[in-house]
Every structure is written in structure tokens, then in C-alpha cells.
Amino acid sequence: MKIANGILFSLILALGLAVGLCAPASAQTDSQKKRRPAKQAKPAPKPRKVWTDDEIGSLRSPADIYVDAKYGQADGTAATKQPVSAKPAPHVASPALSNPKTVGDADKMIAWEKRDVDAQTEYVERVKTQIEEAPQEDKERLKKVLQERIQILADTRSEMDTLVAQKRELQKKTAANSGSAAAQPSSQ
Hints:
- This protein has a domain of 70 residues.
- It is 71% helix and 0% strand.
- The chain contains five helices and no strands.
- The radius of gyration is 40 Å and the shape is elongated.
- The protein starts with a helix and ends in a 5-residue tail after the last helix.
């Protein structure tokens, strides 16, 4: 009888434990069901923006447009609007980056172009070294890169020469203005 009482007691304890564990779980799901609204309205999806070529152009900065125009000639992308039968135009140096207003501005621009020329010259030398050390299948690609960079370097040197000429003109104007101002007596 003691064994039967022990088994009966264990069975009652197990049932009580099972009921005790199930009750909170069902209570949680009931309370969660009560908190949930009957039907939630989903917000309408935002209309997707479709970008056109005109709108994408507005995202580009003037500097991006200038660089594309300047260097696009080297890789052939800038001349896409020319008819196919037209002869390619001879390469003409692009205009100077900007027209300096004073001699000091011209000096700053010339210094900038000089640093640019130095950096590009260094890059050209590095590409020449790479061509010498490159496997045969990479040499053609590197030669094209070298030709493009040499052209860019020539354009930059041309811009620097243009800036030097503009600086000389500014110096002449400044000297002429100061000379004419000194020649005129001040009336009092």
C-alpha cells in the first residue's frame, strides 16, 4: 500500500505540475490575444521614384561634368553625340581651369597645376615600370592607360601654360593701371 500511495502521490504531483505549467502559457496567449487589435491597417507603400536621364544629370556636380568633359576625350565617351561618319576632331587643349582675376590668384592656380603635373608625371613613370614588369596579356591594357595619361599630362601642361600667359597679361594690366594712376595728378 505504501508503494501504491507513493505512486499515486507522484502521479498527482506530476499532474499538478503539468497543469501549473500550462495555465500561465494559456493565460499569456489569452492576454496577448486581447491586446492585439482586431485588424491593423497597413500603411500604403510609398511610390517608387523612377529616375530619368534628365534627373540623374541634376545629381552631378559641376566638377563632375568638367572632369567628364576634360577626360572623356581620352576614353572616347565625350564624343558620343558626334555622327559616326564624321572625322574625329584634332585634339585641342581644353581651356584653363578658370580665369584668374588677380596675379595672386594666377600664382595659386599655377602652383596647383604644377603639383598636378608632378603627380601625373610620377604616375606615368609608374605605369611605364608596370609595363616592363607586366605579363604579356596585361601590356596592351597598360599601354592604353599610358597613352591616356600622357594625353592628360599634355592637357594639364597646356592649362598651366595658359595660366602663365594669363598671369603675364594680368601683370601688364596691373602695371598699365598703376602707371596711368601715377601719371594723373590728384586734384584737390
